[in-house]
Amino acid sequence: MLKFWLVLLLVLNAAVLAWQWDAFARWGHGPQQQREPERLQQQVHPEALKFEVMPPASVTPPPPALPDANAWPPAADASVPEIASPAPALPAPTPLAPQAAPR
User: Fold this and answer.
1) Which of 17, 20, 51, 72 is the most exposed place for a label (fewest CB within 10 A)?
2) Whether 7 contacts 18, CB under 8 Å
3) What is the tens place of the pLDDT at every residue in 36-69?
4) How far apart are CA 61 and CA 13, in angstroms?
5) Buried b vs exposed e over 17-50: b needs ≥16 C-beta within 10 Å?
6) Is-contact 31 22, C-beta < 8 A?
7) What's the confidence (pLDDT) of residue 12?
8) Angle at Cα 82 formed by Cα 79 and Cα 86, nearest 5°?
9) What is the DSSP letter of 102?
């Protein structure tokens, strides 16, 4: 009995596959063909697109943004310690090679 159902399901699957591949189209039986010619006319053609490469705006990077001093009000809570002074400034870099004297 199980063999009968298995063979029946295989035959039905083969018939559905043949129907989808338009094997019965000459007799007027086949899947519904969806055709939308107006959508084909609205398609974007990638070969018609043109891209331009723009040069960089500037060579130097923009300076880093400094935090706004008024953005955060000072904390009135005693658990947060106050910073007494800012970190010391770094010394100016010294040149490695002597500068050439102008002529």
Assistant:
1) 51
2) no
3) 778 777 777 777 778 888 877 766 666 777 766 6
4) 66
5) eeeeeeeeeeeeeeeeeeeeeeeeeeeeeeeeee
6) yes
7) 97
8) 150
9) P
